[in-house]
Design a protein that fits this description.
By secondary structure, this protein is an alpha/beta fold. The chain is built from 9 helices and 13 strands. A hairpin with a 2-residue loop joins β10 and β11. α1 packs parallel to α2.
Length: about 350
């Protein structure tokens, strides 16, 4: 069972290389999730069985300063969903002959009956003044799993910084290298700018509306991917933009490789994708989202990718990209046969 959290599209998309590797190693993946994360994986793997899990009902606050308060307010709904998914997993383990579980940040998807793995790049959960407690809680949940796979490298340079690296711990960690469904290709530039949106509402829509206004002032050809997973792919023209509601992996890979510059959120999966594709980028972190703000500030400090807050961003700031190096691939080849040995039946 492969079970990504439905929080934007990042958890689902970084499970795509894991699912492909499981298929290559003759496992039969069953995908378990909800909402747009499940819809995306159903489009990518229409032949695979899927299971609907409870919705964590995660929504971002309209104002960044209220992010923590909104998460606290929504926590009872989230805890209820986790409790429900635990019951579903318990029932499935009785009824089905699963070899193992891979949970990408779904906190209730594990079982003592089969090897259970947790995928996360957040060993430290940044939450401002409460980082120490949010990190301890998260680490105590990770301990319920047999292994924790971190999609990064153990040493330096790395992509996740203090998020994915602990000074002291008693966790069973495996650094499995950055995960990306995309491959670098040498293609001529078709687009001067690619706008790539994702993430929970209402912040996705708020940034979309702002950027539709800003691209009016951009001198060049734009590809605008809205990050809305819907039943049918739609495409339309808006001034200098080719606009798509979503793209599947093959089309997205081609689009990234044909774009000179990428404008997006600074979610960790996006960072991994852009590093693999060796792209120049500009980041606008989700307001109040400590992890994205940390990653964007860290990459700016390293002179790799410039950033701006959502309120302060204007299209003219893209000129700053010329002074930055851009992301580059961290070479790491994972031995999936060895990694999946955990799931081989005795």
């Amino acid at each position: 069972m492969v079970a990504p959290l439905n929080w934007g599209l990042g958890h689902a998309t970084r499970c795509i290389p894991i699912i492909r590797a499981l298929l290559a190693e003759n496992f039969t993946p069953v995908i378990a999730s909800d909402g747009v994360a499940l819809q995306l994986l159903q489009k990518e793997f229409p032949e695979l069985e899927t299971i609907v899990l409870p919705d964590y009902q995660i929504e971002y606050a309209k104002k960044g300063k209220n992010f923590k308060l909104k998460m606290l307010k929504d926590s009872p709904k989230m805890l209820k969903a986790i409790s429900k998914e635990k019951k579903i997993i318990k029932k499935l383990m009785k009824e089905r002959n699963f070899a193992g579980i891979i949970s990408d940040n779904r906190l209730g998807v594990y079982s003592k009956k089969v090897p259970s793995v947790f995928i996360t790049h957040q060993l430290n959960v940044l939450s401002g003044a409460t980082t120490w407690i949010s990190s301890k809680i998260h680490q105590s949940i990770i301990k319920k799993f047999d292994e924790c796979w971190v999609p990064d490298v153990a040493g330096k340079p790395n992509l996740s910084g203090k998020l994915g690296h602990l000074k002291k711990h008693s966790l069973t960690l495996k650094y499995i290298g950055p995960l990306s469904r995309l491959q670098f290709q040498e293609l001529p530039n078709v687009y001067d700018l690619m706008v790539m949106l994702s993430g929970p509402e209402p912040q996705r829509t708020m940034l979309e509306e702002k950027l539709f206004e800003e691209v009016k002032h951009f001198d060049g050809k734009v590809l605008f991917v809205r990050g809305k997973i819907e039943a049918k792919q739609e495409q339309f023209q808006f001034l200098n933009c080719d606009v798509y509601n979503f793209m599947q992996s093959d089309a997205l890979e081609k689009a990234f490789n044909e774009s000179a510059l990428v404008l997006s959120r600074s979610g960790y999966t996006t960072v991994m994708d852009l590093a693999k594709l060796q792209k120049k980028a500009f980041f606008i972190p989700t307001p109040g989202q400590f992890e994205q703000e940390y990653l964007a500030k860290r990459l700016q400090k390293q002179q790799l990718v410039p950033m701006a807050t959502q309120d302060d961003f204007s299209i003219a700031q893209l000129a700053r990209v010329a002074d930055f190096k851009g992301l580059h691939q961290i070479d790491y080849e994972e031995d999936y046969a060895e990694l999946f040995h955990l799931f081989q039946r005795k």
